[in-house]
Amino acid sequence: MIQLLLSGLIFATTLQDAPAADVQIAPQTEFQTPEVRLTERLDALAEAGPREAAPLIDEIHALWAHSGSATIALLMDRGRAAEQADNADIAARMYDHVTQIDPGFAEGWLAAGRMAAQAEDWAYALESLNTALTLEPRRYDAYLTIARLLERANEVEAALEAYEDALAIYPAHPGAIEARDRLLALQAGRAL
């Protein structure tokens, strides 16, 4: 036991005599709330090219998907799993539960609107998507879904406006750029 104590003292003394190592300490970053991070990422997205946008989109979607509620997270996970399994009825039911439990969660309304559109319940789809946009006006994906619905209804002018709204938030979105350009060409053809 004494020998163990002596070994410890010798080791401690050796450490004290050793020169200080060059230790790099990472600079401290200020804590950011999710809302501040989301705003920063969306601002960066408005300036990003296609290559820079991908990691921003991943983080933005993760921030939008975070509800802060285990129940909501579970229902959203079950809804996504049902969607992937092509079980639209269960997915729609899960998302409707989300909107009832937390009517302030835009992600739930967006998912409910997407499922309503898939079921061709146009009125509920537009109502849900507009609710999502009321709660989070920066949801470019809600604008895209509305634009597709309007385009399908042959409301070219309104669809074009919705694509432009999406592109104001996410200017490098390839699908929105293509759709907008297609509708502009269609309008130009009608003008002739």
UniProtKB/TrEMBL annotation:
Annotated coiled-coil segments of the chain: none
Matches recorded under SUPFAM superfamilies: TPR-like
TPR repeat positions: 106-139, 140-173
Keywords attached to this entry: TPR repeat
InterPro entries: TPR-like_helical_dom_sf (IPR011990), TPR_rpt (IPR019734)
Name of the protein this chain belongs to: Uncharacterized protein
